[in-house]
């Protein structure tokens, strides 16, 4: 150890207050810590570390026996991470040992559910969430869900257990080979501590990394023998660390944006998930959802001379319909927290920075305009109700008329998204969640996470009969922990969106596009959730009223017509 590092250690970690913080936080091991303190007090030395040795090592010699396990829990507690989503295996048991009573663990029966739940929870709380998965296989099962989290910048700490250090080399069963590579490229940072004493620092690093902009998932692989090891007493300095990113404006770029907005004749504002969707859908200025092809987005924005995109990529394309990126004569400015997003945009200028601060600065500085207000969009006429299965439009009409005005919607019904946006009034921030990578299996678990984060609002998960199967075990978790989500399954018997896409691509005779005969009421019953079938608008209204009045989850199966088929 160099002289400098010795000096740094003593300066940063061993002030009296630092060590007290550590000891106070030691919780369950208070007795041994007290013993260690008195041992320290009895030691006949002048308080200075011996030459060539830090005070840490002299303390270690005095047997401070707080474990990596306890001090890491302390760190999690102090950083507000007392909720764990997971599915355990043998590698994870030493972490879960003596699970503190002020923590809660939500057991998911599949890792995709654990990650999806944490995703919903973190998005709704705006804070990082902690997931504990089983080694390589558990991580692999969670990766579809991680794709969604990556795309929505959700701050997640995915921790997986590793084999005990002594057996990683022989690749004993459950060794996570190349652990740090496995979750890439769906994590911002991936790490396996090189010593047990590095675990708490690694966890501290992970939670700050996840939260710092652009926020996103991080991965930590921890050999299971590390938890019982003796902690590095310098971990005390980590417990209350605050790490903030402050965006300072360079006045020139900001005033350029302000000038362009002031000069614009007909600007359009495009908002994405980083501003906690949605813009109130009942607002007279609301123009609806952007389509997903280059040509159609350009057409939808035609007539606007300046497009300000905030908290969304430019743009989120799906089907390939080439064309100009922007309508003739239009300019674009994007505001994002993500340098990658800014750099890969094919058109326009971008500002990388704090979304909230940028919007605040723009709101303060942009002149009030005397442009005429846009004509409000016409509300769609009530959907027709025929004798057969309901049109999805009719389902949304019933929800709109029945659900509370602050209801939260999680959408994973892939062929009905436009209807949802046109027909459901959403006025509060944080009223809409979706799988940002298009990875199915997000909706049901995310609804649970959002409901946990927003206990005073009701979450309605609108789920397609195909999508429901990717994370159907979320029903068990909903029942087990009495999370009162309303799962509304739109049962059209098909992968409707894929049928539509097959038409876009002009491909015929594709096998495996239908999913007939799934009995969601039996599935609900099997997992312990109340299930009800609603075949008419009135039955749906009644079922929704009952479900919304219940303290436990409900699944409502609604036979619907597949659009256009
Ligand atoms: C994990 C995953 N697998 C497959 C797909 C491809 N996919 C996109 S939409 C879709 C159909 C979903 O059907 P359903 O939930 O019934 O909704 P509908 O289109 O009928 O409204 C499928 C399979 C996907 N997006 N994600
Ligand atoms: Mg379907």
In words, what does this structure look like?
The protein is α/β, with parallel strands linked by helices and 565 residues long. It has three domains: 5-33 and 268-365, Rossmann fold, CATH 3.40.50.1220; 68-230, Rossmann fold (3-Layer(aba) Sandwich); 392-559, Thiamin diphosphate (ThDP)-binding fold, Pyr/PP domains (Rossmann fold, 3-Layer(aba) Sandwich), CATH 3.40.50.970. Helix content is 36%, strand content 14%. The chain contains 21 helices and 16 strands. It has a six-stranded parallel beta sheet with strand order 2-1-3-4-6-5. Strands 12-11-13-14-16-15 form a six-stranded parallel beta sheet, sandwiched between helices. Strand 11, helix 16 and strand 12 form a beta-alpha-beta unit. Helix 5 (68-78) runs parallel beside helix 10. It is globular and about 70 Å long. Mean pLDDT is 89; it is low at 1-62. Thiamine diphosphate (TPP) is lined by residues 144, 413-416, 438-441, 464-467, 470, 492, 494-498.
Entry keywords:
binds thiamine diphosphate, six-stranded parallel β-sheet, alpha/beta, 16 strands, disordered N terminus, 565 residues, Rossmann fold, binds magnesium ion, 3 domains, 21 helices, globular
Describe, in short, the structure shown:
By secondary structure, the protein is an alpha/beta fold.
The structural class is alpha/beta
Number of strands: 16
Low-confidence stretches: 1-62
Gyration radius, rounded: 27 Å
User: How helical, in percent, are the residues?
Assistant: 25-40%
**CATH hierarchy: architecture of the largest domain:** 3-Layer(aba) Sandwich
Biggest sheet, open or closed, and with what strands and sense? Answer: 6 strands, parallel
Bound molecules: thiamine diphosphate, magnesium ion
Query: How much strand?
Result: 5-15%
CATH superfamily of the largest domain: Thiamin diphosphate (ThDP)-binding fold, Pyr/PP domains
- Please give the order of strands in the largest beta sheet: 2-1-3-4-6-5
Query: For this entry, what is the oligomeric state of its chains?
Result: single chain
